[in-house]
Design goal:
Blueprint (H helix, E strand, L loop, with lengths): L2 H35 L1 H8 L18 H12 L5 E6 L6 E6 L7 H24 L8 H10 L3 H5 L2 E5 L2 H11 L3 H10 L9 H5 L20 H4 L15 H19 L2 H10 L1 H11 L3 H7 L7 H18 L1 H4 L11 E5 L6 H8 L3 H7 L5 H4 L10 E5 L3 H8 L15 E4 L6 H7 L4 H8 L12 E4 L29 E5 L6 H7 L4 H8 L12 E5 L18 E2 L17 E3 L7 H7 L26 E5 L6 H8 L3 H8 L12 E5 L5 H22 E10 L6 H8 L4 H6 L14 E9 L5
Parallel strand pairs: 11-14
Antiparallel strand pairs: 1-2, 1-3, 4-5, 6-7, 8-9, 10-11, 12-13, 14-15
């Protein structure tokens, strides 16, 4: 080859290299431009993950394996007869798998048994932390030492017990057959990954009636606040309870989460933790999910949120291998439901008569209908999507045309309320409003002791005297005022020799007329020794006979011998965790027995107007679980108008006990108040249908402790419930060492 050709080839190679270099520079420049203009996409690309809306390969990211493996075992190896005692941060550390016995234990008995096991390992870990020469450890101490390795005292504070879920997961798979086909179809409609359909296994095991202490409902466990963004959540209808309607809401929420954070692990975690929290985490730590789990610190980003995506991956694995883990499954067949939109308000009885369906059949096909509609207190609302078995729908649509126009309505039935005044009795309220004691008890979840209290809001059943507006408080005539304590409960009393009604009334601080009425005496003078009658129990602490004993464990015991000589004081013991003085009003609440615990919160403060104001502007006091959007809905105003009236900026918020101005130009205060009462009543009913209060304890506020932590992490109770047992306090501004009453809740045993 001559010199000219050699030079030409060399020149060509140099130009080729320069061209390739230029191309590389161009590619790098484009990448950095994409970082500048599309930061969400850039983070996904640089972390070697490709996140798209409808296609994503859900694999376990490095660093999350131990969490996923832990939850696989919870779902597929350990049943609810087992509890895994483990470290809350390192799920590789499992101290013991506790067998809870063949017979189901009550929640209290189970927690008592597990607390002993946790106390055992706390003691071992703290002992190891104090020993300098670890080589001499033997037996259980040596095993725990090798398991934990270091930070033993810290580990002693991080012991947790997780109940197994194998039997529930199996039942969930079998139940899922009813809805899974339709759920997947809906997700496909929203262009979402098919795998997301397993989330109800994590949330609820596909139980329609699932309800958490935080107020989350249905198979998708929507809270009221989040549910209202995507579906109807009210006193008459709660679409969170309908698996199919709620699936549309879940699809919208998951799609919104993903389009915001552009990462499926973060979007799924946001379903549990909240989108704003995940946005903050992503801003600080990027889209590396394991990095977020390990480093993001927030009071609300606790064990549940940190493990939610790992639970999802574990559930996905178990569902994909369900025949391996659960042989001989009996999966339920898909439901066949059709629907049509009601053009009018109709009563439940009308629907039952004309659709040839029982109340139970309507409730089963329409799980979003709440108790007030099912029992006839409210009408099935106009526009409601009525559901029935597909084979019956044509018949129902045809029959609707035969319903007389006089039983089709253009508006909803009003709900009537009465706020209990001092001196009221349940029998007196029933008599005044033309109803019965049993009806009042049924409508208001009142226990067998007929206890009501001043400030309690009672819902009034249909009766002959329901003319009082919900906004106004009824006035008491002097003849209605009783001398007995408003909190009085009825107890049994055996008539003694020489007793008469006057003596008994004086003994129990009541009057003869009241005793005559509650016992329905035809002849009040015809008492005889040994006869058992009803009397109101004493509720005030006797000045001379009460005994307060502060022992090593700070136990408070109240002597109630003046009520019944045979009663045991231990039945009314209240645990006290402080030696500080406790106010008499706090003690008065805390000494109630579990049977007499109030099930309805006190009324919120009603709307008030200035005396010289003709503007229609009223003032309300913000209560728990209320937002600007609620007030806008109840007053027929816009949120923007409410912000303007109250001079609240776009990012401004409201807090409990704040004073807020509302314009009542478009609605009446009593209508506003009725809707407000219904909102809180629905929250109460849902809660007490699923939980009961097992005991009350008194404890003090510790340094650095927030009300949110106390309510949600320590006791898992709603703030409104905590407030109702501390009504004499402003629980937003509790001071360190201040005693407060804590209602301890347990789930109701619905199978009992």
């Amino acid at each position: 080859m001559d010199a000219k050709n050699i030079l030409q080839n060399r020149s060509f190679r140099i130009e080729s290299r320069q061209l390739l270099k230029s191309i590389r520079i161009l590619i790098v420049s484009l990448v950095f431009l994409s970082v500048a203009w599309f930061p969400g996409n850039a983070r996904a690309s640089l972390s070697h993950e490709v996140h798209t809306l409808n296609e994503y390969h859900f694999t376990t990211p490095p660093g999350l394996q131990s969490k996923v493996e832990f939850w696989k075992k919870i779902y597929s190896e350990y049943s609810t007869k087992h509890a895994v005692v483990h470290d809350i941060n390192n799920l590789d550390i499992v101290y013991e798998v506790v067998y809870l016995g063949g017979k189901p234990l009550s929640r209290r008995a189970r927690e008592h048994k597990l607390e002993k096991v946790k106390a055992k390992y706390r003691s071992i870990l703290r002992k190891i932390a104090k020993i300098k020469n670890k080589a001499g450890l033997k037996g259980e101490e040596e095993r725990v030492f090798k398991l934990v390795k270091n930070d033993f005292y810290k580990a002693s504070r991080n012991i947790r017990a997780q109940l197994g879920q194998k039997d529930r997961f199996r039942e969930g798979i079998e139940r899922s057959g009813l809805y899974i086909k339709e759920i997947k179809r809906i997700f496909k409609e929203y262009n979402l990954p098919d795998e997301l359909s397993v989330l109800p296994h994590v949330e609820s095991s596909f139980q329609i009636g699932a309800y958490s202490s935080a107020g989350a409902a249905g198979i998708w466990q929507f809270t009221r606040g989040t549910g209202r963004l995507f579906m109807r959540v009210g006193y008459d209808v709660d679409e969170r309870r309908d698996p199919i309607l709620a699936t549309h809401g879940a699809a919208k929420l998951l799609k919104k989460n993903f389009e915001t954070v552009r990462s499926w692990p973060l979007a799924i975690t946001a379903y549990n933790h909240g989108l704003q929290g995940m946005k903050r985490a992503q801003k600080r730590f990027g889209s590396d999910f394991v990095n977020v789990v390990n480093k993001y610190k927030s009071r609300t980003f606790g064990f549940a949120s940190q493990n939610f995506y790992a639970e999802f991956l574990a559930a996905l694995h178990v569902v994909k291998n369900q025949n391996k883990y659960f042989p001989n499954l009996t999966i339920k067949k898909p439901i066949s439901i059709a629907s049509f939109k009601l053009p009018d308000y109709i009563n439940m009885r009308t629907a039952m008569d004309h659709f040839d369906m029982s109340r139970e059949e309507i409730a089963e096909a329409n799980p979003s209908l709440r108790r007030p509609v099912l029992n006839g207190e409210k009408r099935i609302p106009k526009g409601f999507v009525f559901q029935a078995p597909a084979g019956k729908m044509n018949y129902i649509v045809a029959r609707y045309g035969h319903i007389p126009q006089k039983v089709k309505y253009g508006s909803q039935l009003r709900t009537k309320w009465y706020t209990v005044q001092r001196g009221d009795t349940l029998s007196g309220v029933a008599l005044r409003f033309g109803t019965t004691i049993n009806s009042l008890k049924g409508f208001n979840n009142i226990g067998r002791r007929n206890r009501i209290y001043a400030g309690q809001v009672l819902q009034l059943p249909k009766g002959k005297s329901q003319h009082q507006p919900a906004f106004q408080l009824a006035k008491l005539d002097s003849s209605d005022v009783r001398t007995e304590n408003v909190h009085a409960e009825l107890v049994s009393y055996q008539v003694r020799r020489h007793d008469n009604l006057s003596k008994i009334a004086k003994r129990f601080d009541t009057d003869v007329n009241h005793l005559t009425r509650i016992n329905r005496f035809r002849n009040p003078d015809a008492l005889y020794p040994g006869q058992k009658i009803k009397v109101p129990s004493q509720e005030e602490i006797p000045g001379d006979s009460s005994k307060t004993v502060v022992s090593k464990n700070f136990k408070l015991t109240v002597d109630r011998s003046n009520i019944e000589k045979s009663s045991k004081t231990t039945k009314n013991s209240v645990t006290v965790k402080t030696e500080k003085a406790v106010s008499s009003s706090t003690l008065k609440v805390a000494r109630k027995t579990t049977e007499g615990i109030n099930r309805n919160r006190p009324a919120f403060k009603p709307v008030s107007f200035s005396q010289n104001s003709n503007s229609g502007i009223g003032t309300i006091t913000v209560d728990f679980d209320e937002t600007l959007s609620h007030y806008a809905e109840w007053s027929l105003l816009s949120v923007r108008e409410l912000r303007r009236i109250n001079r609240i900026g776009k990012r401004g918020d409201i807090s409990v006990n704040d004073k807020l101005r509302v314009n009542f130009a478009k609605t009446l205060p009593d209508t506003f108040d009725e809707k407000r009462q219904e909102y809180h009543k629905a929250i109460q009913e849902d809660f007490f249908n699923n939980y009961e209060i097992s005991k009350l304890t008194i404890r003090t506020v510790e340094k650095g402790e927030t009300l949110w932590e106390m309510s949600n992490e320590n006791y898992a109770i709603p703030l409104w419930l905590l407030s109702s047992y501390n009504s004499e306090k402003d629980i937003r501004s509790l001071s360190v060492g201040e005693p407060i009453v804590i209602p301890v809740i347990i789930p109701k045993d619905k199978d009992a």
